[in-house]
Amino acid sequence: MTSRKTSQSMKAATAAKKLGIYLPAAPQEFQEATITRTELMEMQANPPEWLADLRRNGPHPRSIVAARLGISISGLNRNGYADPLTTEEINDIRREEPKWLVIERQVAQEVKAGRAHRQGSSPQGGKDCPSCQARGTLSLNSD
Hints:
mainly alpha, two-stranded antiparallel ribbon, 9 helices, 2 strands, globular
């Protein structure tokens, strides 16, 4: 019996997530296609013009918008940004630096610092942290 190598495939929505693009902005043929892993890898290595343009100008999915603004997707939602944004719109927000953006960036930093602390990678994280000992919330990495 000979084993045949089958190429794994995925829906366009999955491929779009892996490529970091907003699916409804992609060409119709991409939206309707089933993408193989080989095709996905080729698009990542040598993006077609439409993909390069979409990555450059948007509209971008909320995960990309949030990352470019340095905040969480929840932070976007809390401030009324439920729709995809273009690169120009993202840059406008960054230039204006509204109060909500400053606050959401602080929240994101605090969450990251808390995560690092719980994992023991902060200066006093883990078993040596007095506040963790008092709360009974020792790091996952503590012995």
